[in-house]
Specification:
With about 280 residues, the protein is an all-alpha fold. The protein has a domain at about 170-275: Alpha Horseshoe (Serine Threonine Protein Phosphatase 5, Tetratricopeptide repeat), CATH 1.25.40.10. The protein contains 15 helices and no strands. The protein has helices at about 25-40, 50-65, 70-80, 85-100, 105-115, 120-135, 140-150, 155-165, 170-185, 190-200, 205-220, 220-235, 240-245, 250-260, 265-280. Helix 3 packs antiparallel against helix 4 (about 85-100) and helix 6 packs antiparallel against helix 7. The longest helix has 19 residues, at about 25-40. The radius of gyration is 28 Å and the shape is elongated.
């Protein structure tokens, strides 16, 4: 009887976990905070697959927590673009534009993504939309110049590059590309003058030095050309790769002439010397 009279605890009386009320604006605030964290990560090149995966998860969560903020969608688009998942990037960016159709940077990024996909007409359309809103954005003017270059609209490309230089007189990539256009137009003397100006502005850039070397070689100034090419390769050996140059908008004419310069015994010896030094440095 004594055993049977023991009262068992009533399970229904156990405390339930407390769930605090969360307001919608708190979710949005957290989403923006996540997007800012991802934006900080994007300032560095995300090479590690685990870091990329984590950043993507954070960006996706940010769009869920703050779906009506264009910033979260643009960050997601940037992340996809960095991973070369351009179709996913376009979907995210179109969402950002639908939320904020007057933001110029959205169109600039859209133009750049279309450029990477090789859709140059769409790239031009969106870059021009953004520039209509924000006409003095240097990088967008440069991108528009590159797009016009790809479309074969060389005079228009030069016009866009010159506008970029007008906004920022120290923006050497635009000046350099004017030289590339001049070279394709057969104006080697004009190209040489421009590349000399670029080098005077920034002496630590490999591209204008190699371009100048190629032009000088074509004019018969071989020793000067060899010296400039050696300087260029010492700054960045990638410029000895014709495919790399093609990706950097070097046209058919200058690529052909670069191949001739690189194929000379003097430059081959220089490249072999650099390669042997690299192997020695990296060997255990």
């Amino acid at each position: 009887m004594g055993i049977c009279s023991v009262v068992k605890p009533v399970m229904a009386q156990a405390l339930l976990p407390y769930t605090p009320e969360v307001k919608a604006d708190q979710f949005e605030e957290k989403g923006i905070d996540l997007a800012q964290q991802v934006q900080y990560l994007l300032r560095f090149r995300l090479e590690d697959s685990a870091t990329v995966s984590s950043a993507t998860s954070m960006a996706l969560l940010a769009t869920q927590l703050a779906p009506n903020r264009f910033e979260t969608w643009r960050i997601l688009a940037l992340l996809y673009a960095q991973q070369k998942e351009y179709d996913k990037s376009l979907v995210a960016l179109e969402k950002a534009i639908s939320l904020e159709p007057k933001n110029a940077e959205n169109y600039f990024l859209l133009g750049r993504i279309y450029f990477q996909k090789g859709d140059y007409p769409s790239a031009q359309t969106n870059l021009e939309k953004g520039l209509h809103i924000k006409p003095d954005f240097v990088e967008a003017l440069f991108d528009l110049g590159n797009t016009k270059f790809k479309l074969g609209k060389l005079p228009e490309a030069v016009d866009a590059y010159q506008k970029a230089v007008t906004v920022d007189k120290k923006f050497w990539p635009a000046m350099n590309n004017i030289g590339l256009v001049r070279y394709e137009q057969g104006n080697i003397a004009g190209a040489i003058k421009i590349w000399q100006e670029v080098i005077a502005l920034d002496n630590q850039q490999a591209e204008p030095k190699l371009a100048l070397a190629v032009a000088l070689y074509q004019q018969g100034q071989k020793e000067n050309a060899y010296a400039k090419a050696k300087d260029a390769f010492s700054l960045d050996p990638q410029y000895a790769d014709l495919n790399f140059l093609k990706e950097n908008l070097w046209g058919k004419t200058i690529l052909h002439d670069t191949e001739i310069l690189i194929g000379t015994p003097d430059i081959q010896n220089v490249l072999k010397s650099f390669n042997s030094k690299t192997k020695t440095t990296t060997s255990p």
